[in-house]
């Protein structure tokens, strides 16, 4: 039996633009998806979760078809199961194996909120399944396979979430070009409200907008790139005021891309009013997660999130990324 945990990820700068090759800054946090893998006879894949969000899930997959399913009314749990199953398939193709496996998945994160739970499921499943079969993949290989999983399930995905969840830390990522660790310490509060759209739908919505207004949207993407690079300098100097200001600018550009909504804006304004230096969406938007930079006012921001119908929690950086528990 192998047990692996992979951290959730908050997106500080550059989401959506990163799908078009622009740089982004993301941070692995100290809340995890855990996957336990046990080899079973035959080629079946069993996926069990007791706490993905609300209720449970049990899936038995034989030759790519669901042979038995008990999914109790939880669309996000079902979605995460599809990432886990695809992660087994992608790993099988890579290693040239067909062994059966029972996966038990647990989550300390609100699932499907924009905190990279799908990336964490993909990465920890790839790592747990391969090690259970006696293979030792490098983290870079796990990150690559996990990204492949996201591309296959979602249609389009940048490597931001899978790289950050696997490698850990606060990272500057320019897809296919550079991954750089940033040493800054950030007092972060995460807020979550209900999600209305999936990441795949939101990425598709931005692509449509891009198609209708290529001149305007390409300039927004270029501006996001500029501000990500300025944020990198501000982080290096630990200039939190400037980092917060740039987060607010980034939020304005995400709003322009059409991925914000009223409930997210309520959380974002409530955080700013409670004294946060900056607050923005974390991830794809359409509801889900927001991230606030809140030095000294963490508790007030958490209270403000709760008063506006969300949940809130502090998050610390998790440097290690993917972690084998035993
Ligand atoms: C999702 O967490 C972030 C997006 O940029 C999509 C991606 O990077 O694949 C919206």
Verbal overview:
There is one protein chain. This protein has helices spanning 75-95, 117-132, 139-154, 160-167, 199-212, 214-236, 240-256, 262-273, 298-307; strands at 2-13, 24-40, 45-49, 57-62, 65-71, 100-107, 170-174, 178-182, 188-195, 278-281, 287-293, 311-315, 323-324. The protein is an alpha+beta fold and 326 residues long. Strands 1, 2, 3, 4, 5, 6, 7, 8 and 13 form a 9-stranded mixed sheet that branches. It has a 4-stranded antiparallel sheet with strand order 10-11-9-12. β10 (278-281) and β11 form a beta hairpin. α1 (75-95) crosses α3 and α2 packs across α3 (139-154). It is globular. The relative contact order is 0.19. The mean pLDDT is 92. Residues 11, 15-16, 18-19, 114, 116, 157-158, 160-161, 199, 203, 283-284 line the site of (R)-mevalonate (MEV). The site of (R)-mevalonate has 15 residues, from α4 and α5.
State the end-to-end CA separation. 8 Å
How much of the sequence is in beta strands?
Answer: 25-35%
How many beta-strand segments? 13
The helix tally amounts to 9
Low-confidence stretches: none
Largest sheet: 9 strands, mixed
Name the structural class. Answer: alpha+beta
Q: Which percent range fits the helix content?
A: 40-55%
| Ions, cofactors and other bound molecules | (R)-mevalonate
Q: What general outline do the C-alpha atoms trace? A: globular
- Following the backbone from N to C, one meets helices and strands in this order, namely EEEEEHEHHHEEEHHHHEEHEE
Mean pLDDT rating: 92
* Radius of gyration, taken over Cα atoms and rounded to an integer in Å: 19 Å
